[in-house]
Design a protein that fits this description.
mainly alpha
């Protein structure tokens, strides 16, 4: 691919970081947790929220012009944030007691599996090194896995035996199919073997003179991290605002971030015109297309007033689960 710069419609970074700074005190206050009083699900929910907020804050502490190879390596975190949103929204549909039990069983099962794999690896590669080799009682673990089957059947949320359903099925149940199909898949290709991701790191003026480096495309990856960290944060708070007890001031700042996201002329793409050496539609074309789209939406809204009311309610602060 040719060594060419991607020109993004960047968010106003100072404004975004100012909003995140204003939200930080309340966000970090959610880190306090009492397991006995709040339960396992709420603990994981809080941990995931903090991780989501801290990642957004961290990547916005870097200037696009000073991006380096760290931007690429950080991008893998978006995949975990995406999966947290989907899985927690899915588990949230269970009764509270079942939520806590499912989270505990998932923790036991995944930990036991990892301990077994760890023991196999160290027996093979470093047999002299003491490592943890025993986990949970086998009978207790088997009984817990059977409970996953029973809870899935009683709730009618999944049919898989002794485990939770695949993340794609969860996304379909909680109406995050579009999110899964693009955001989750886009971030997954960064952490999995992917020919396109590998080759896009090679830049040069000719196919005969290409240099590979994680620094190539680094501005793209930092912009990707900054934009989609906010996109996921907004969606996370919309899904769990009530559970987290977010204040009106917090959600006001969150709404400002959401507005900035929607006002952008160009969202970061998974595959770009630039990397495919194709002509990028100029800013004027993009503005015309956006204006035409907004006019079409406005015209449709005038024809159906009921949809305007519903849309307004959906976009109001109550959609974030405001704690007044």
């Amino acid at each position: 691919m040719e060594a060419t710069n991607i020109t993004w419609d960047l968010m106003s970074q100072p404004k975004t970081i100012d909003l995140l700074n204003a939200m930080e005190h309340e966000a970090l206050a959610k880190a306090s947790f009492n397991m006995h009083r709040e339960g396992m699900f709420r603990g994981v929910l809080k941990a995931s929220f903090i991780k989501c907020f801290e990642f957004a804050k961290f990547v916005h502490g870097h200037e696009i012009e000073k991006a380096d190879e760290g931007s690429f390596f950080l991008s893998g975190a978006l995949r975990g944030l995406s999966e947290d949103l989907i899985a927690l929204k899915f588990i949230r549909k269970l009764k509270r007691k079942d939520r806590d039990e499912v989270v505990q069983i998932e923790m036991m099962s995944s930990t036991a599996q990892l301990i077994d794999k760890q023991a196999q690896f160290f027996r093979s590669k470093r047999p002299f090194q003491p490592v943890l080799t025993k986990s949970f009682d086998t009978a207790k673990l088997d009984k817990a896995k059977d409970r996953l089957t029973a809870i899935g059947q009683s709730s009618k949320l999944w049919q898989t035996s002794r485990k939770l359903p695949p993340i794609e099925q969860m996304a379909n149940v909680v109406k995050l199919k579009a999110f899964y199909n693009f955001i989750y898949r886009m971030t997954s290709r960064i952490v999995h073997f992917n020919v396109g991701v590998a080759l896009r790191s090679g830049w040069g003026n000719s196919p005969k003179a290409v240099t590979f480096s994680s620094r190539n495309f680094c501005r793209y990856y930092l912009e990707l991290n900054q934009f989609y960290s906010l996109y996921i944060l907004v969606n996370f708070c919309r899904a769990f605002g009530k559970d987290l007890g977010l204040s009106s001031s917090f959600t006001k700042n969150l709404a400002a971030i959401s507005s900035a996201i929607n006002d952008r002329l160009r969202w970061p793409e998974a595959v770009t015109f630039e990397e495919m050496n194709q002509q990028n539609p100029n800013e004027l074309i993009r503005i015309v297309l956006k204006v035409a789209h907004l006019e079409k939406k406005e015209k449709a809204a005038r024809k159906s007033p009921a949809s305007v009311t519903a849309q307004s309610e959906t976009q109001s602060s109550t959609s974030f689960g405001v704690q007044r």
